[in-house]
Design goal:
This protein has 106 residues and is an all-alpha fold. The chain has four helices and no strands.
């Protein structure tokens, strides 16, 4: 809060008038956002250190634990689903019936 008053007083002295509310709010928001950003960067650095420590510990165990540690942050991709010829034919018939019904409705 003292920052606000210091800035307010310096603005008063420089312009000889009271500052607009938006000027005061803008400086408070900027300082709050800068503080939040610094905190988030510190948190990210701490978390990255923890992740590397855990993955190192797992890699020392070897075997399956090491593979799990290497793939822990990756997103897995779904296997492509294949349709048999009978399934494709059934879908085709359903869609043909659907569109025939829609055309008949018009």
């Amino acid at each position: 809060m003292t920052r606000r008053y210091v800035r307010y007083n310096s603005l008063l002295a420089s312009r000889g008038e009271a500052p607009r509310r938006s000027e005061i709010v803008a400086t408070d928001v900027r300082s709050s956002l800068n503080h939040a950003l610094k905190t988030l960067h510190a948190d990210r650095a701490r978390i990255e250190r923890q992740i590397s420590a855990v993955s190192n510990a797992l890699s020392e165990l070897g075997g399956k634990a090491a593979r799990v540690a290497r793939t822990a942050g990756r997103k897995t991709r779904r296997a492509a689903r294949t349709m048999s010829a009978a399934q494709k034919k059934a879908v085709s018939q359903r869609m043909k019936a659907y569109w025939a019904k829609r055309r008949a409705a018009k």
